[in-house]
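Quick one: C-alpha cells for this chain, please?
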Amino acid sequence: MENNTKTFKYVDYLWDDQKALSLGDNQVDLFLYRSNILGADLRITNYGGGNTSCRTIEKDPLTNEDVEVMWIKGSGGDIGTLNRSGIAGIYTNRLRDLKNVYGGLEDEDRMVGLFNHCIYDLDSKAPSIDTLCMAYYPSLI
C-alpha cells in the first residue's frame, strides 16, 4: 500500500483517510473532524480559539424545501475538542437577511441577539461572534 502521508516543516499532517471514510457523506461529522484536526495543533490555533464552519443542504421542517444551513462553532467552544453539542445550525439566508436591519457599529450587540431568529437546529449552541463573517463568504455548495 502506498504511503500518502504528507510532511510539512512546521505543522503535523493529521488527516486520516480511513477515519474520514468512516464518516461517509455526513458533512457535519466531516466538518467536526476537520475542526478537531485544525484545533489539535496549538501552533495553528490557540486553545479556545479559532472558528470553523460548513454549509449543507437540509430539509426545512416546516416547508419540506431544501435550504442552506451553516454549521458553525458555538460561542466559547474549542475547535480542538468540538463535538455535535458545541455547534450551531443556522439558516444561511436568514443570517444574510440581518443586513436589512443592521443599524451600524452601535447596533453590533443587538445583531448578535438576532442570531436566535436564524436558528435551524433547535439543539444549537449559541453561535460564535464570527457567525456573520462566515455567512457572507460565498457558498461552494
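The chain has a mean pLDDT of 89.
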